[in-house]
Amino acid sequence: MENDLYFYENKNILNNFFKNIPNIIVLDHVLTRTMKKANVILPVTNFMENSGTVINNECRAQRFFQVYNPSFYNKNNDRRSSWKWIYEIYAKLNNLNKKITLDKIIKKCEKYVPILNGISLAAPPATYKVYNRKFARSSLRYSGRTSMFSNINIHEPEQPKDEDTIFSFSMEGNYGSNINYTHIPFLWSPGWNSSESLYKFQKEIGISSKYGYTGFKICQKNKYKIKIKKIYHKHNYNNQLIIVAYQNFFQNNSLIQKSNLIKKYFNNYYVIFNKNDAKQLGILNNYLVKLYCLNNTFILKTYISKFLNQGLVSLPLGTKNIPLSFLGKIIEKIKVLK
After folding, report:
1. Phi and psi of 50, rounded to 5°?
2. Which of 185, 238, 273, 306 is deepest in the core (most CB within 10 A)?
3. Domain CATH for 317
């Protein structure tokens, strides 16, 4: 579900794994190598087209909200959130009501996964209203929406109903710095350009929101002692090096790699050698080398580093068909091409 397994695991292992599975169902919004193995593909919405909860590095659960309903603009679009597909299948198999809201799903997550207790507090329930109205998703400048479908019908169609969040899919609804709510969909105030009106929503300029932080910490801070095991020892030079990863903001995410702009401007992948290892192997900067590991081969340019520990080789794991599972594996052979 919305994960390309080939991003994580050796392609040879996965190919053998999929051969033994008669029925494969994949839910995703982009074409992946995993999807190509599927018997059934269920199209899902992306992060802008659905609502849900994420947990950040401080254990704070934060809600993200759907920007628009794709089926409103294209009636033939039958994409749905992954959790809606999963629940519909479950409901069909168990003769249950096929409709369920995000709030109910979140409550079930808290019930059956205790560590997630508190995620329902990340945002108000969808039934929360002020002055018996939901909150506006769009600013008053969205009034031009009335002409969007004028070529089809001069009468504006009714906006879709959102049963999963506190927002309406329109400019109608509550909005303003005088209304107590932390989830602000946009910035606007009379007489101010959008970003300039930010101070209207802050308790102290540049410091904090007038109505508090968004989200909810589902667990408190604890002090832990972490013991890091030594994973390698003094190296003997037999052309075998241990793989570690190097991180690149624009390259180590499986989804962002599909961007044409990223492919165009961030296409320089390389393998990093320790300067002493490189000297022993007769490798210089910008050499083209072929690496052999677990019946896989990778061709990359070289970069010599004085900071990388001896006995290690750093690869762009997650890119160039090099899965994350190669972390800690041994390079079996290195061949200099030019």
Report:
1. -150, 170
2. 273
3. 2.40.40.20
